[in-house]
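Internal tracking record. Fields below are filled automatically when a chain is submitted to the structure queue. Please do not edit lines marked as system-generated. If the sequence contains nonstandard residues, flag them in the REMARKS field before resubmitting.
Queue: standard
Priority: normal
Entity type: single polypeptide chain
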Amino acid sequence: MAAEDPQAGQHRTRLDGCIPVLVTPHDTNSLAKVAHGVSIGTAGDLEVVDVEDNTVVIPSNALAVGVQHVMQIKQIKDANTTASEIVAWLPVTEADVDLS
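SYSTEM-GENERATED OUTPUT FOLLOWS
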């Protein structure tokens, strides 16, 4: 199932309206939604697929531990990922919230 982005086309500089979801990297499964950011708990490389289907390995020195990094990604791959405690920041819509 392809990741969907309910806020496509909106330029984001913060992660307001997003919730943190712990991610297990996987080489074939995409995230449930396009993530608007990522955080890592332990430094390492992070292999991601962006919204334009580009696969990129972000080197360990490019991502600070414990910081919310704003980027739109639809998959976090396992093969070249050495970072751990990976959190994807997924957007929340009204449909995601049960107000009953």
